[in-house]
Amino acid sequence: MKKFLNAFLVGGLLISSTAAFAGKVTLTVEFDRAKIKFRQIDTEVTPVCTFKRMVAERLNIKMKEFNLRRSGSLLRADNMLSDHRIHSGSIIKVEKVSYSSQCR
User: Which contiguous run of DSSP H or E holds residue 29?
Assistant: First the structure.
């Protein structure tokens, strides 16, 4: 009985820890031929503008100087990353522009 209980508790811990990372993915951002990895991004709860702010900080550029695109489509500012079917391994491109209205 004790072995069963221990196995049950360990199994429960493994399942709960796996569930905590279920929505977190690794995304690749392409910028001027460079590829930058962003790890542990929860696409279900991360808005596009929050991710854009993260990209701007990492690349040391202003948010108004670029747009984020996936498969040629502009990411809508009012959506979550998951709304654009972004998943682990997705590539997001940084498009330099003179003025971006993607996130206000």
Answer: strand 24-31
